[in-house]
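Thread: sanity check for a docking pose with nicotinamide-adenine-dinucleotide

Original post by kr_44:
Hi all, I'm comparing my docking run against an independent structure prediction. Below are the sequence and the ligand SMILES. Could someone generate the full complex and paste the structure tokens? I mainly care about where the ligand ends up relative to the chain.
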Amino acid sequence: MKLENVRAIVTGAASGIGRTTALELARAGACVIGGDVDLDGLKELEAESANLPGKIFGAHLDVANESMVKTFIEEAFEKLGDVNTLVNNAGILRDGLLVSRDEEGWLRKLPTAQWKRVIDVNLTGAFFMAREFVAMAMEKNISPSLIVNISSVTRSGNPGQSNYSASKAGIDAETRTWALELAPYGFRVAGIAPGLTKTPMLSHVSSEAQAEMISKIPLKRMAEPFEIWLAMRFIIECDYFTGSVIEVDGGARF
Ligand SMILES: NC(=O)c1ccc[n+]([C@@H]2O[C@H](COP(=O)([O-])OP(=O)(O)OC[C@H]3O[C@@H](n4cnc5c(N)ncnc54)[C@H](O)[C@@H]3O)[C@@H](O)[C@H]2O)c1
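Reply from moderator J.T.:
Ran it for you. Here is the predicted complex with nicotinamide-adenine-dinucleotide included:
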């Protein structure tokens, strides 16, 4: 698909990788509806895109809220006409060990709410978005269409991230499954598994933990969001690419 023909929904567009994706798409002449819970961030994004060849519209969205997702998708198709791309990028971290001992020796268990919120946003959110997007695109006979799911290098497991790693392993399974199910209807579905990337998400990770992670990356630095965009651009432009997840991780393996 040519970049200038993209009419995309990007979730989590107010910050980090989603923001870079929306801006680069608009720079290439594409139209984007950016969904996010961060309304101030969306306003800034719209303002930043004002002089670009494409257009970005911000809209309030909590991907974990099923009825809000339905309304968001309906309104996105009304606004852009034929939406042909969904980037499932919204994601959160709520790290914690399964069971640990605190300084006084008491056992601490990962709270259920902490487990659930990450699964609800990162995994179920992608499911709600994809289901409503695909249903609407099929109803309107929009083809070709594309879904890009954002996974993570920690999808194979990382201490303190059982919720996050499980959500990202799950999104990889969604990617492969939807690619197989939807190919006959003209959809491609692919993923990107970034390594540590310089975005505001890392404000949840201590600087000691960041330094420790960087020390394990062969290239000894984080990725820039633009470097994740390069993989996104490849997926959009290569019409033969589906069912796989591109690793952009400086050679890191967990
Ligand atoms: N930064 C990294 O090191 C890294 C590494 C691997 C994968 N990722 C993944 O990349 C994606 C983007 O992360 P980022 O680093 O740009 O983070 P970020 O925190 O900068 O951006 C995430 C965006 O998602 C939004 N968001 C959070 N919950 C939401 C919800 N319920 N509904 C809609 N929007 C919501 C946030 O408001 C924010 O704007 C995530 O899926 C993340 O898991 C990030």
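The radius of gyration is 18 Å. Hope that helps with the comparison, let us know if your pose agrees.
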